[in-house]
Specification:
The structure is a single chain. Helices cover about 80% and strands about 0% of the residues. The C terminus is likely disordered.
Length: about 325
């Protein structure tokens, strides 16, 4: 019972992170299950089965808050499902010994990417325009494949790519990616069911993760409007890097002073990323305050009208513009 309560709490926290950041439910949950000794294929299968429920709840919540671009959802969900099914089939055919370092390596790489991505200022320009299908299709395919083979990765691959394009509001990027993940999680679960059978799913674990995620989904859709994505992304990335480094170090059979030295180096990198994230967040807020301040001798009403639609401080600080 204690273990199930812990897993429910993990599901809740993972969904809060995922719904606020557009990524990391699978990364967080899969990392914990690997640390607990669950086989990689079973961990990914259980997380994806739980995600069918959590992503459905998250999608509905994001839709109610107006965070979903359905054109983008349809163009990344179907290729993502194809990639996820292929990835699940591949992971199901690999032995546990071979899959553990492979899965940890993918999670470690994605965690490092989060550190680097959120240590820099988030892009706030060029919001608007349309994303082409020839970009969204391959993106969904790759993100779905990485997601199934790594136990997570749909958000870390898809969300930053859409954010960097600068053609969508961050809140709609997060809402659209979370909504499309329902289809991806379903396709991955079907692939694992075919490859592993029903015994490949740890149903008590699935139930615990699902309950926690369902509780958190509506709150996460609201938090996406106020939580500083800059800090959250850097913090989550560091946790994922350090946790999966443990599996990689064991696989490489590093002993003696090399192990603590490597951990210290990774911890120092995490701390540096957090410092850079804080500095980037402060610079963006200061720039936004200057840009929206009324000009000298100009009535406040005129200044507000001139800056309508421009809210770079809100955009970078909270990952979504504040609606006035």
């Amino acid at each position: 019972m204690r273990k199930l309560l812990v897993l429910a709490l993990v599901g809740l926290v993972a969904q809060l992170i995922d719904g606020s950041l557009g990524m990391a439910y699978g990364l967080t949950s899969s990392t914990l299950l690997l640390v607990a000794g669950v086989a990689p294929a079973a961990a990914s299968a259980s997380v994806h089965l739980a995600e069918i429920g959590t992503t459905l709840a998250a999608g509905v919540a994001h839709w109610r808050f107006g965070n979903v671009d359905w054109r983008v959802v349809t163009r990344i969900a179907l290729p993502g499902a194809v990639g996820a099914f292929a990835g699940a089939t591949l992971l199901s055919s690999i032995s546990t010994e071979a899959a553990a370092p492979w899965m940890a390596g993918i999670l470690f790489t994605l965690g490092a990417y989060l550190l680097i991505r959120f240590a820099r200022p988030l892009r706030t320009d060029r919001v608007g325009g349309r994303l082409r299908g020839r970009f969204l299709g391959p993106l969904g395919l790759v993100a779905g494949f990485v997601d199934a083979t790594g136990g997570g990765g749909w958000g870390p691959v898809a969300t930053p790519a859409l954010l960097v394009s600068g053609r969508m509001e961050p809140r709609k990027v997060i809402g659209s990616v979370d909504t499309a993940e329902f289809v991806v999680a379903g396709a991955a679960s079907i692939g694992f069911l075919i490859g592993l059978g029903s015994e490949g799913f740890l149903l008590p674990t699935v139930a615990a993760l699902l309950i926690g995620g369902l509780i958190a989904a509506p709150l996460a859709a609201w938090l996406v409007r106020i939580v500083p994505a800059q800090l959250l992304g850097a913090a989550v990335g560091g946790v994922i890097v350090l946790t999966n480094a443990r599996t990689l170090i064991r696989s490489a059979e590093l002993d003696g002073p090399a192990r603590p030295a490597l951990y210290a180096l990774l911890a120092a990198g995490w701390l540096a990323a957090l410092v850079f994230a804080v500095r980037a967040l402060r610079r963006t807020r200061r720039a936004g305050a200057v840009a929206t301040a009324p000009a000298a001798g100009v009535p406040a009403e005129a200044s507000d009208g001139a800056s309508a639609g421009e809210a770079p401080a809100d955009l970078a600080a909270t990952a979504t513009p504040t609606h006035r």
